[in-house]
């Protein structure tokens, strides 16, 4: 089974570049969570994704190749 890729199934390098830019990280983060069917997590990212979650997304993307999951359900 192929590894699940974040940010619309894009490759790792493109996802890291998108994660570095705060606005794209915020938009891609909540859109990705909505596409996964995680409405509450998407709303939390929409409201809180511009601060500490951006930094956590960047760290998690570099270390584990996945965005930070607020609600890992």
Q: What this model shows, in words?
A:
The chain crosses the membrane at residues 12-33, 39-63. Keywords: Membrane, Transmembrane, Transmembrane helix. With 73 residues, the protein is an all-alpha fold. Helices cover 68% and strands 0% of the residues. The chain is built from five helices and no strands. The radius of gyration is 11 Å and the shape is globular. The two termini are 20 Å apart. The mean pLDDT is 84.
Unreliable stretches: none
Q: SSE order, as H and E?
A: HHHHH
- Provide a count of the helices: 5
Tally of DSSP β-strands? 0
Q: What attributes characterize this protein structure?
A:
transmembrane; transmembrane helix; membrane; mainly alpha; globular; 73 residues
Question: What can be said about this structure in brief?
Answer:
The protein is 68% helix and 0% strand.
How do the helices and strands line up, and which of them pair or pack?
Elements: H1 6-9, H2 12-20, H3 22-35, H4 39-48, H5 52-64
Helix pairs in contact: 2-5, 3-4
Keywords: Membrane, Transmembrane, Transmembrane helix
Transmembrane segments: 12-33, 39-63
